[in-house]
Amino acid sequence: MTQPRKRVLLKLSGEVLMGDQSFGIDPAFVLELAKEVKAAKESGLELCLVIGGGNIFRGMAGAAQGMDRAQADYMGMLATVMNALAMQSALEQIGVQTRVQSAVQMDAVCEPVIRRRAERHLEKGRVVIFAAGVGAPYFTTDSGAALRAAEMRCDALLKGTSVDGVYDSDPKTNPAAKRYDTVSYDTVLADNLKVMDASAVALCRDNNIPIVVFSIREKGNLAKVLAGEGVQTTVQKEA
Ligand code: UDP
Hints:
Elements: E1 7-12, H1 27-42, E2 46-51, H2 59-64, H3 69-93, E3 98-102, E4 111-112, H4 115-123, E5 127-131, H5 141-151, E6 156-161, E7 182-184, H6 185-190, H7 198-206, E8 211-215, H8 221-226, E9 233-236
Parallel strand pairs: 1-2, 1-6, 2-5, 3-4, 3-5, 6-8, 7-9
Antiparallel strand pairs: 8-9
The protein binds uridine-5'-diphosphate (UDP).
């Protein structure tokens, strides 16, 4: 990454909150992630967060077992709210001010998504955690992340996952798979590369938001990636 980033959106897949467990939330690991987020924040960034729900429930999995897809997706959205609350409490435990805004209104628990209010939170140095994706079934939190990155005018969308970038084929099954340093939105879409859903990639492309894919499992990597160091792939416009 060569350009300085002032406001970034960090998308974490729900699975990273599991730590070494196979399901749910590992509070100790969430605390480690919160420390990384704190360090990023202290480097002077305005930070928005979106967390998935795959560690708890995915709509597609429910639908595959015979559930109504939309109903299952709403359950998935509720899972993302649980993760957002877990991250909020870890961040506040280490002194980072946060607000959770959910696309599915839940007045007793968090704020609804209100863009201008989110702006104000960021100005005041709070981390804003956007929960419940776009608030509609048949979408994912990747699309939610792209949408919030666009409406909050973020300089980049950082996708922290368990792989260290985008490969031309699956590195788990093909040892010769090559990692891209940069790759265009159009190549990602045309070659169906595993980065984010096509709708999320298209939204980033149309709004010229670079997507930086990196491994969040490695300690200290978020700060490195923000400093333009470390292993990552940037999805961007064709040079
Ligand atoms: N979901 C949805 N609409 C959204 C965001 C999420 O229906 O805008 C549901 C969907 O069922 C999804 C689940 O919430 O499977 C969890 O989100 P996701 O799969 O994106 O989580 P991740 O893979 O990032 O952990």
